[in-house]
Please model this.
Amino acid sequence: MVKTAEFDEQIRNLSLRLDVHGKSQAEYADIAVKAFELSQSLTNKWVSSDSIAKRHLRQSVCLNFLLEDKNLMIPMQKPFDILVEGPNFENGRGERI
Model:
């Protein structure tokens, strides 16, 4: 009886941990979809936005603004940095396409 109760408790704990993990995976997927949708509609949103909305968009996409020499550097937050840099595709021989 004691072993059965211990096993039942372990099963409940593991089930709870799996539920939490499953929810976090779903949340990550939801965030990824929202980031992709934002990246696809960002130009239209920028053009039609007022200054407050533009500031919010800049804060969402840009990490910081840096002035190096005479150039303005704009590092992007993840996942938008991948969109700026572009993916690194290689063919079967390891050469960059």
